[in-house]
Amino acid sequence: xxxxxxxxxxxxSAQQSNLDxxxxxxxxxATSGFRSRKMQFEDMIYQNLVTxxxxxxxxxxxxxxxxxxxxxxxxxxLIQTQGTFSxxxxxxxxxxxxxxxxxxxxxxxxxxxxxxxxxxxxxxxxLVTVDGNPMIPAITIPQNSTGVTIxxxxxxxxxxxxxxxxxxxxxxxxxxxxxxxxLNSVGGNLFQQSSSSGNPITQAPGGTGGVGTxxxxxxxxxxxxxxxxxxxxxxxxxxxxxxxxxxxxADDMYSQVNGLVR
Length: 262
Prior knowledge:
Elements: H1 2-27, E1 37-43, E2 46-50, E3 65-68, E4 71-78, E5 85-87, E6 94-97, E7 101-105, E8 111-114, E9 120-121, E10 127-128, E11 135-136, E12 146-150, E13 155-159, E14 167-171, E15 174-176, E16 184-187, E17 190-192, E18 201-203, E19 213-216, E20 218-220, H2 226-261
Antiparallel strand pairs: 1-4, 2-3, 5-20, 6-19, 7-8, 7-11, 7-15, 9-10, 12-13, 13-14, 15-18, 16-17
Helix pairs in contact: 1-2
């Protein structure tokens, strides 16, 4: 019965982590470019009372007698399905149709990656995120320019006074990874590469490396399915209750055994 207590406790702990993940998904259901996570579980070690395959007699082999010792949280899988698009009135807002990430320079000089395409201009006219971090490669738009256009292939053009044709100001580059699910979430709608994600592969949108195209004047919403998260929350609650019931039953059995002594 001691095994039952600790086994059920491990289940309650795992479901608590599951509920924490669900809560974070729901809290970010309105966060642009947010990628939801799904908790993955794995069983823990087994106590071998009889090893499977051991010989009982010369003619028979035992199927084994193993008792599991619970479960644990194995990973919080990053879900990379695309969110819906919202049209905005800002011509600098961008959404990626397909795979890929915008590249961002952090204050410490490192590179981070994001699906949040809510961009605006800083005092120097450079494209920056809502936190003021510039895009890579740097795109600078003159203050007196008009009619800024960003094509689906990342070409940025604008009409500059005194020029008869639109001027090309740069080409946006996207980054892709062999395993986007292995990226490290660091907050602020940002990801960083890890040994699991692999090194970034950068190219212009719509290229041959698997990156998507850009949609000007749109932002990508969170990919959180609120209905599915509520269903997952109910399932996690019921699993938590079931494990707590096991602890109560095991405690009642202990009480009966202690009563026999008296």
